[in-house]
Amino acid sequence: MKKIEMAERNNNALALGIIARKSLFCLFIIASIVFIFSWFFVLRSTAPPRFIDHSLLPNSKVMSSSINNGETVQSVLADFEEGNGEREDSSSSPCSSCQTSNSINNNKDSLLKVYMYDLNHEFHFGLLGWEPEGNNNNKNKQVWPNLLKKVPDYPGGLNLQHSIEYWLTLDILASELVNPPKASSVRRVYNASEADIVFVPFFSSLSYNRYSKTNSNQKMSNNKLLQDKLVRYLIAQKEWQRSGGRDHLIVAHHPNSMLDARMKLWPATFILADFGRYPPNIANVEKDVIAPYKHVIRTFVNDSSGFDNRPTLLYFQGAIYRKDGGFIRQELFYLLKDEKDVHFQFGSVQKDGIHKATQGMHSSKFCLNIAGDTPSSNRLFDAIASHCVPVIISDDIELPYEDVLDYSEFCIFVRTSDALKEKFLINLVKSIGKEEWTRMWNKMKEVESFYEFQYPSKEGDAVQMIWQAVARKVPAIKMKIHKSRRFSRSLDRKDTEFRHIPSPNNFW
After folding, report:
1. Cross-strand bridge partners of residue 80
2. CA distances from 8 to 16, 215, 334, 358 (A)
3. Of the candidates 73, 67, 103, the residue with the CA atom closest to the CA atom of residue 88
4. For labelling, which of 1, 89, 237, 341 has a CA lying 20 to 30 Å from the CA of 490?
5. What ranges does the record give for the region Disordered, renumbered to this chain (predicted)?
6. Do 399 and 86 form a contact (C-beta atoms < 8 A)?
7. How confident is the model at residue 273 (pLDDT cuts 50, 70, 90)?
8. Phi and psi dihedrals of 81, rounded to 5?
9. Which residue, 393, 389, 399, 432, is CA-closest to 414?
10. Tell me: the pLDDT tens digits for 107-143?
11. Burial letters 260-298, b for 16+ CB under 10 A, else e
12. Measured between alpha carbons, how far apart are the two ends of the chain, in Å?
């Protein structure tokens, strides 16, 4: 009997052992399967996500930039030979000191998509005296001039230096022509949801220059009336409400333009000359774009002058007594007025002033760019057009395209505190010899086209460079819009609509 019980126990133990081994084997199989599937999902997660609408992603041709070891890597505008579309060798690029976007071609997908409001002509070309023709039922033709017939003229003189919105608007309109200009960074679209940016065609600088003074029978200037009307128009638009204005682009290049509207429209991206009259929560280098002035000095064409052919060592002509940060001008005047080979005099556009300044800059080795009422001035871009090495004395200056362009290769920067030391500035410029000056002079001639405004626009000119600077802001703009929509489903719809301007302290 005991033998039988012993046998049964042995059989049971054997059976349990077999079951245990089978269970362990099954667990091993299951664990292996789970392990294999987990790696499958991990690897799959590295592939491009399928839930992204790739039509919303900014095109790499427009947004591209490369950084290597913390330094900007040269990425030049690729030129295409006419007729065969072949790219020239990058070693022949006219700009070896800067990084720019890749060549802009006729592929529509590579262009910055811009939605432009059809504002009444009083906001743009109407300020130039242009009037719509007849009772044309075509809204687009009623609002905009026919560029094939005549391009409305912009007023000359100092008005031109802040004419940025004029050139950008013309470039958008030109993109719609049957045979658009070959050089193009933008394409106009009529569905704002397809756009990278929403452009507001208000000639704000011209409005300030011409209509900021009130008449005897006016309580408010026409400039302020236009700004007020623009604000009311924009915040009522579904395009503004959808993004809170974050994806809107407004040009306010004159430091005094948009002074009334900016506090209400600040979520938009501004194109400015500098940030001198803007609080940092309204405008800053992370959010906005700095554009060059249009120079008023005549471009030095076919410049063969060298170090020895420019007799004036250091040149400045302009307003000497300024307010705010411009106090340094009068201090430098007293330090430099008796120095040999230095021209430091008062000057204006009156009495052939521009012609005299052109001659003076074209015959000078170094040209002073000193802070005025605001950190920037047109004098820097006059110096570049004259191939006169700029000496920049403005501690708070922001420069166009500085994320892709190294200004230290063709400009001298001096701190205000150093410039006011006796003999510091004059000794500094005298220490720069012929070889170093010639290198900077050559660099200036390589980049001068980046500051040329013209219609039609040409590849690598100021219009194209500004559009590409805007394009580089688009990813950050889209990220902020996407973040703002995180909790939209959990809130009441009325609370999520942007019918009021949010506080700048918590908007970004």
Report:
1. 87
2. 12, 117, 117, 115
3. 103
4. 237
5. 81-101
6. no
7. very high
8. -70, 135
9. 393
10. 556 799 999 999 999 999 999 999 998 655 555 457 8
11. bbbebbbbbbbbbbbbbbbeeebbeeebbbbbbbbbbbb
12. 88
Classify 485 as helix, strand or coil.
coil
For tokens 């205000």, what's the residue?
Answer: 416
Q: Which residues pair with 249 in a beta bridge?
A: 199, 269
Contact 271, 291 (CB under 8 A): yes
Residue 19 has pLDDT above 90, yes or no: no
Cis before residue 456, ω within 30 degrees of 0? yes
- Which strand (E) or helix (H) includes residue 475? helix 474-484
- Domains of the chain, residue spans: 112-133+142-213+221-290, 307-451
Reduced 3-state DSSP string for 427-439: HHHHCCCHHHHHH
**Are residues 74 and 99 in contact, defined by beta-carbon separation less than 8 angstroms?**
yes
Rounded CA separation 174/180 (Å): 6
**Structure confidence by residue, pLDDT tens digits, 27-50:** 667 766 766 655 554 444 444 433
Q: Say whether pLDDT at 210 is over 80.
A: yes
**Verdict on whether the full-model pTM lies above 0.85:** no
* Pairing mode of beta strands 412-413, 364-370: unpaired
